[in-house]
Design a protein that fits this description.
This is Sulfotransferase. Pfam families: Sulfotransfer_3 (PF13469). It comes from Qipengyuania citrea. The chain has helices at about 15-25, 40-50, 60-75, 80-105, 125-135, 145-150, 155-160, 170-185, 185-190, 200-205, 215, 220-230, 235-250, 265, 270-275, 290-305, 310-335, 345-350, 355-365, 375-385, 400-410, 410-415, and strands at about 115-120, 260, 280-285, 340-345. By secondary structure, it is mainly α. Strands 2-1-3-4 form a 4-stranded parallel sheet. It is globular and about 60 Å long.
């Protein structure tokens, strides 16, 4: 008997139904076709808000590249192109509102962003866990999930600050998350979250049409290649200004350092360090056999929602190459960072002794860990409740072999002393390594 190849998961029936409804609605004229045209999208955002200042127009360059790639390569289904159009509208509207706030309250842009703590590591290498453990410490500032989905408050937000209204953004985030879970319930096990959970700042880079979020969401290889040759400093400057706006909206003390993290920073360390020259960096490391498979699984589980033409082997090759580029760029950029401003953390050390590992982190940051231990344990307990099923994945699902991945990253694992002894298989229950 010939063994059948292990197949990655299929998308849910919910998406098939939604896609069919949208297609039928378009045939009947009840739903307009998605219009993925830059000028039309810009005009639509301006009409919706009554505003016309998008800020630095650099974002139009990655936007052009992204739209070309989406239309030429992503092969979106009806649900996918409708979702893309709404996503772009949301981003453009937020850019307009951001400029409105900066003009209405010039003090926002004067807020300092001192000594941020930035967690840098491959996708699925333990960055989320480390980020959320630190975010529980009230001595640091952090983004909440609803703020990365909707970084910019609406024009009536001053009434929220006055206690006259509730901020609608957490409710909107909750609705988006419910739809996401209907579209693919596996998202809850891959990346457990909620509207108020600490979250990464990837959405703040998306605000400039910049980030590998697009690679994970859609098949857009020419956009990814374009980004590799572009200087993203303008995107990081806008991200910093959005952090200032969020800190102002939280009524957060500007003396508290921000806790930041997103795998995007592995590609963009020079830009990050130019905008945040006093950043302290925590690098996370994990066996590449684990995080390459997990990253491919994460991308696959998103792309199957938006396209009917996903190819698992292609996804595996893309994320193997993407991961290699991330590590290569991270390693070459570390020479820019003084040794006393960075520390390396192993995923396996966090698994075996999270408290001892966090003590190392706190010594590096110059903080006493004792006041934060209760909050950290509370997060770990809450995380266990949020995660209802394990994230299952394998290299084989995506046409990759363990030996191939091990050889590709042998120098990386040797240089950073990464444990590589754990094989992965489809049947094994693996703990989430977001």
């Amino acid at each position: 008997m010939i063994d059948q190849p292990i197949q990655p998961p299929r998308r849910t029936h919910f998406i098939d139904v939604a896609d069919g409804v949208i297609r039928a609605g378009r045939k009947l004229g009840a739903i307009d076709p998605a219009l993925l045209d830059k000028n039309a999208l810009l005009d639509g955002a301006m009409q919706a808000t009554g505003l016309d200042d998008f800020g630095d127009d650099w974002f139009e360059r990655p936007f052009d590249a992204l739209l070309d790639s989406v239309k030429g390569e992503a092969r979106l289904n009806a649900a996918g192109d409708l979702s893309a159009m709404k996503q772009f509208h949301h981003i453009l509207r937020d850019r307009l509102y951001a400029q409105m706030w900066f003009k209405r309250h010039p003090e926002i842009l004067a807020r300092p962003l001192r000594n941020p703590v930035v967690i840098v590591g491959p996708m699925r290498s333990g960055t989320t866990r480390l980020h959320r453990l630190l975010a529980g410490d009230k001595r640091f500032a952090h983004l909440r999930s609803f703020e990365t989905i909707s970084p910019v408050p609406r024009p009536e937000f001053e009434q929220v600050l006055a206690g006259e209204k509730k901020d609608f953004r957490p409710k909107l985030a909750s609705r988006i998350m419910k739809v996401a879970r209907l579209a693919n319930p596996r998202t809850l096990s891959i990346h457990p979250t909620g509207p108020y959970e600490p979250e990464e700042e990837l959405g703040l880079l998306v605000a400039s049409m910049w980030s590998m979020k697009h690679d994970a969401q859609w098949h857009v290889p020419s956009y990814a290649q374009w980004c590799e040759n572009e200087d993203p400093v303008p995107a990081y400057r806008h991200m910093a200004n959005l952090l200032r706006l969020i800190g102002w909206s939280q009524q957060e003390s500007s003396l508290r350092p921000w806790i930041l993290k997103t795998p995007q920073h592995m590609l963009d360390l020079p830009a990050l360090l130019e905008v945040f020259p006093d950043a302290r960096l925590i690098f996370t490391h994990r066996d590449p056999k684990q995080f390459v498979a997990s990253a491919a699984s994460l991308a696959w589980n998103q792309q199957i929602i938006y396209s009917d033409h996903c190819d698992a082997a292609r996804t595996g090759r893309e994320w193997l190459g993407k991961t290699a580029t991330m590590i290569e760029r991270m390693r070459s950029s570390r020479d820019l960072i003084p040794a006393n401003r960075m520390i390396d953390i192993q995923y396996e050390d966090m698994e075996s002794d999270w408290r001892g590992t966090m003590e190392r982190v706190y010594r590096f940051l110059g903080f006493d860990m004792a006041p934060a231990i209760t909050a950290m344990q509370r997060y770990l307990d809450r995380s266990a409740r949020l995660k209802r099923r394990p994230h299952r994945y394998s290299l084989e699902q995506f046409g990759l072999r363990e030996q191939e991945v091990s050889e590709r990253f042998a120098d990386y694992t040797e240089t950073y002393g990464i444990s590589t002894g754990t094989p992965i298989s489809d049947a094994k229950r693996l703990r989430s390594g977001a």
